[in-house]
Amino acid sequence: MDVIKPNHVDELVQNNVILSTVETAFNWCRSRSLWPLTFGLACCAIEMMAAGDARFDIARFGSEVFKPSPRQCDLMIVAGTITKKMQPLVARLYEQMAEPKYVLAMGSCAISGGPFTDSYNVVLGADTFLPVDVYVPGCPPRPEALIYGFIQLRQKIVYPKKVAALKKHG
Amino acid sequence: MLKTQELTLNLGPQHPSTHGVFRCVLNLDGEYITKAVNHTGYLHRGLEKLAESRTYTQFIPYNGRLDYVSGMMNEMVYVQTVEKLMGITEEIPERAEYLRVIMAELQRLASHAIYVGCYALDMAGFTAWMYAFRDRDDILDFLEAASGQRLMPNYMRIGGVANDVDEDWLKRLDVLMDKMPAAIDEYDGLITGNEILMARSIGIGPVSAEMAIDYGFTGPNLRASGVDTDLRRDEPYGIYDRFKFDVPVLPEGDSYARYRIRILEMRESVKIVKQALKDIPEGPIMAKVPKVIKPPVGEAYHRIENSKGHLGFHIVSDGSTKPYRTRINSPCFVNLGIFPEMAKGMHLMDAVVALASIDIVLGEVDR
Amino acid sequence: MDKIIDREALVGELNQKFGNCVEIFEDNTNQSIKVKPDKIVEVMKELRDNPKYDFKVLMNLNSVDYPENFTVVYHLNSLTYLHKVTVKVELDKADPQVPSITSVWNAANVQEREAYDLMGIVFTGHPNLKRILLVDDFVGHPLRKDFKLQA
Question: Of A46, A86, A120, which is closest to B68 when you measure between CB atoms?
């Protein structure tokens, strides 16, 4: 019976065979093809659109498919100011997305309210009611900064234990 | 006999074609709209109230967040209103005035490029969007070199502009303006004569001249309905009276006319920038203004020809360092009021095209 | 510079037509007139339709919270003569009410709703006076001076 012995593994790897768990393989694939939700709220949406154009080209990272329906995407980029009128709808959209789903807070308004912190109608950041995975600061952040945020999210998806350990130790 | 029921459909705040967080509740009979009700305010950040707790100079960056695709022009009208209130309109240095005109017209080109791209994108024409954004990125490079930011430039100051530009910037801009007419021809040829676009926008959402004036249309939408008016020519602000340019006017008043007029305006903006680049003098870029801006008691209303219409600021001052009341008269807010009237009896897919042709930016609608 | 009209003649004509309801308002712009609230619709119709003035465009509709009253400010413009006038209406602090001019200009529809929403001024006769920018159950009117922001 052919059973793979430990001393055979090196030989197999050299012959282009990779051994892993299904989870790791799926995580690798997921991180390379994150489909964002078309969810521009305010000014950061323009830079998000610019990240998809020919110069900055987010398509080379697998994310040019911006789907309008929350059922079909796995990344919600909160791009812009969340107002109190819009907050229940953002929460509803998040709940409509299927697992595994990720949230990227883009711009200072989504991180902490931005320049409008003392306004009567602004929610002070997306993390007051959503679990945010990556924060991309800026007002608005350049498209390259958004792409850097995508790459950081990739690290988080592929190495979840490493990222959790980093968070624990500060 | 089958009885049909009216369907209530939510063109929700999260939608690829609503240009932002705009919600419209439609009553549909089959696919024809019988009633449309606008719901705005999903991006209301209270800018008018925030202005009362910021000094005049501190409020300048907030203007970029209004109509976030024409930051330079929003800041220009705000500083010009404060200068009018202070009575220093004649003291702005020449070089600052020329730089203001160049930045404003570049911003108009960038804003119309987004309009052209998104108009085609709303009809699923993705290619045109790519071409328009390519040109927009070239223009934003220059805005970034001058002010440090692509989108919210924070460039205009009360009394002049913040940073000067060097010879190299002016030379390279001249080269870009030589290339722009060819770029505009590119998407003109790609989209304007496109059969699908023509079939989907000719005759859609017709607005007559009387209806346009009654509903408060301003800017390119008004000129597309046959009314020959342009603030830059009729009541010039800054130094616009020194430039020669045509004012395109189209009589049809439908979505296709509103689209075509912006292509024509882009060509005129290129002309203005080239004239300004030829005549720009050397000199200071800031007038002598006090360090602490304290306008006298009174009020001022000033408006300019923004890329979307007439953006107006009404500032009431009580003599202190902070304004007493700042009212932002936004063209998109007023222009959007026509949509329920326009959408009656329209097919659902035509309503999306009509909404795209009015050119709204939600940051300005909701402030 | 804004082109302004002869306010004396304008005020004289309007008072002749509608009774004593218009007077010159002195401020730094030199183009303001004050109208009594109950006659505002007739005065606006006259300003729009009279070919001598031809104020076809309502540029701006603003509301200001002064210490002694609420003032609604209308900026009018003529496309043919390019002259301008500012019409002011002073309202009671306790109960600010003014007739709606939506029947004269449809552009006033959304702007009056905004003034109602943010400043609490009631426009009688408006076809749909509901909040437009804030949630329907918001308490208070934010642009009033007694509504304090939490810093």
Answer: A46
